[in-house]
């Protein structure tokens, strides 16, 4: 039985194509080739000083062209991974937006 299983594994691996590329990449992709998502934080700077809300967050994502939104509360930790298509909205203890940037 073990020999049959071993032969099956060998047969499957013989069909594999080592020249085939993976369906993903770790290299940066320009926004126009990545589905159009990019972050334009400069277009939503008017929101600084406004009270944060879900409705405002949705509006900021749409207007900035970003793919996602990350709320940044005061005194909180965040991952340092940079994503060009993510909008970061920082706010203070009063839920007032203090800073908006991409990443």
UniProtKB/TrEMBL annotation:
<protein>
    <recommendedName>
        <fullName>Peptidase inhibitor I78</fullName>
    </recommendedName>
</protein>
<dbReference type="InterPro" id="IPR021719">
    <property type="entry name" value="Prot_inh_I78"/>
</dbReference>
<keyword id="KW-0732">Signal</keyword>
<dbReference type="Pfam" id="PF11720">
    <property type="entry name" value="Inhibitor_I78"/>
</dbReference>
<feature type="signal peptide">
    <location>
        <begin position="1"/>
        <end position="16"/>
    </location>
</feature>
């Amino acid at each position: 039985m073990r020999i049959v299983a071993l032969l099956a594994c060998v047969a499957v691996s013989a069909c594999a194509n080592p020249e085939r590329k993976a369906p993903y990449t770790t290299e940066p992709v320009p926004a126009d080739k990545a589905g159009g998502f990019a972050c334009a934080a400069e277009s939503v700077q008017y929101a600084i000083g406004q009270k944060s809300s879900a409705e405002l967050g949705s509006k900021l994502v749409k207007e900035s062209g970003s793919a996602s939104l990350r709320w940044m509360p005061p005194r909180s930790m965040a991952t340092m991974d940079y994503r060009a298509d993510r909008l970061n909205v920082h706010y203070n203890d009063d839920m007032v937006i203090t800073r908006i940037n991409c990443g």
